[in-house]
Write a structure and sequence with these properties.
Elements lengths: L1 H15 L7 E8 L2 E8 L3 E12 L4 E7 L1 H6 L3 E5 L3 E12 L5 E10 L2 E11 L2 E11 L5 H24 L1
Antiparallel strand pairs: 1-2, 2-7, 3-6, 3-8, 4-7, 5-6, 8-9
């Protein structure tokens, strides 16, 4: 009975995973010292109440600027602030909505002379708290192929251990 429950839980998690939606920061372009990002919302409407988003783990940031709808949502009651290693976009209250989902709102442009690599982002809004990685200006690029190889071998090992446990 336990094995059947575990298999049903695993199968439902695999089936429902594509339905899970998470807001994210999308890397748009990198030209010279400018790194451009879009905030992607995966639901039809979002409210930001005493919250917003952050990109951290950067290096050498000298400027950050909002444009488009992103500026309309965040600048009247908040705005963008930055240090040399992070950019924070926050507001007291902001709302965005769209008939299509996912959709992107506005543009965040970060200025830095550092090399491109992976940075972290965190978003807090009415849809929840979301984290992830995005390309950004960092001092040393992350060796992505070796990270994927390490994750893949770990998943294969976990699948083998699970198979052995279920067959015994």
């Amino acid at each position: 009975m336990r094995k059947l429950f575990a298999l049903v839980a695993l199968a439902s998690a695999m089936v429902l995973t594509p339905l899970a939606k998470a807001d994210s920061i999308i890397f748009d372009s990198h030209v010279g010292n400018s790194y451009t990002y879009d905030l992607q919302i995966d639901n039809h409407g979002t409210a930001f109440i005493l919250d917003g988003f952050t990109i951290s783990g950067l290096a050498g940031v000298t400027d950050a600027d909002l444009s488009g709808l992103l500026a309309v949502v965040f600048e009247p009651l908040g705005g963008v602030s930055f240090t040399s290693h992070s950019v924070t976009v926050a507001t007291i209250f902001g709302v965005t909505a769209s008939f299509s989902a996912p959709y992107t709102i506005g543009t965040l442009t970060v200025t830095s002379a550092s090399l491109p690599g992976l940075a972290n982002f965190a978003i807090l809004d009415s849809n929840g708290y979301f984290t992830g990685t995005v390309r950004g200006p960092v001092n040393s690029p992350v060796p992505e192929p070796s990270t994927l190889l390490m994750m893949g071998t770990g998943l294969i090992g976990a699948a083998g251990a699970a198979r052995r446990k279920f067959l015994s």
